[in-house]
Design brief:
This is RNA-directed DNA polymerase from mobile element jockey-like. It contains four helices and six strands, in the order H-E-E-E-E-E-E-H-H-H. The protein is an alpha+beta fold and 228 residues long.
Length: 228
């Protein structure tokens, strides 16, 4: 952040500064506090209670004056990841400043992927004669069921034939009260062709593949699959 020579002290009323700073703040320290608040940063060395010898970061020649003017500021989002922050006085760096060290415990979220495993079928079991007989038996039962459903649809279609004939036997009049000749354009909105086509559609399966059995469905019915 540069050499601000800023002292934040321990009396600032700010969420960015803790109560364990050293000394009192100065004008440059106030500017630094304002900067940290604007950028949602936290000065961690002021949040840990330490002896004074672990708080000062600079000493004047002759060790007459000691001040805290060097800091480590991090985003407040990660402030709970810091477990320790202090100065390291024994460093041989040939400077009147003491380095500030900070210990963090960062927990990164491991991305999880959804399982993409697909159940595979043991097709080799189809060579078993007993299994073949079982499959043939189940397929025959399904075919009988399909035939019954088709028969029921045809029966329902025949039942509605009487209703259709009763509708056509009615005398139809237009909005002026005149009788309309059967089969005319004015009667087409409920003509015989319309009812015939709609009844055919009503008794047809919605999906043209609903009566077809795939090899995978065949194996699922028998219950022979191995999850790898």
């Amino acid at each position: 952040m540069g050499d601000f020579n800023a002292k934040v002290g321990n009396t600032a009323m700010s969420k960015s500064i803790g109560r364990y700073g050293l000394g009192t703040s100065n004008e440059r320290g106030e500017r630094m506090i304002q900067f940290c608040e604007q950028h949602d940063m936290s000065v961690k060395i002021t949040h840990f209670k330490q002896p004074k010898r672990r708080l000062y970061t600079w000493k004047s020649p002759g060790d007459v004056t000691r001040n805290q003017i060097d800091y480590l500021a991090i985003n407040s989002r990660f402030k709970n990841a810091v477990s320790k922050c202090k100065t390291y006085l024994g460093a041989d760096i040939g400077s009147d400043h003491a380095p500030v060290i900070m210990k963090t415990n960062i927990k990164l979220k491991i991305p999880t992927r959804k399982s993409t495993k697909v159940a595979k079928y043991e097709v080799s079991q189809l060579k078993n004669e007993e299994l073949q007989k079982k499959i043939i038996f189940m397929l025959s039962r399904m075919s009988q069921k399909i035939e019954r459903e088709i028969s029921d649809r045809q029966t329902g279609f025949r039942k509605n034939s009487g209703t259709r004939e009763a509708i056509f036997s009615l005398k139809v009049t237009d909005n002026r009260g005149w009788k309309v000749r059967p089969g005319s354009e004015q009667e087409n909105w409920h003509g015989e062709k319309y009812f015939f086509e709609n009844e055919q559609t009503a008794y047809q399966p919605q999906n043209k593949f609903c009566n077809q059995i795939t090899p995978y469905q065949m194996l699922r019915m028998v219950g022979i699959f191995v999850r790898l």
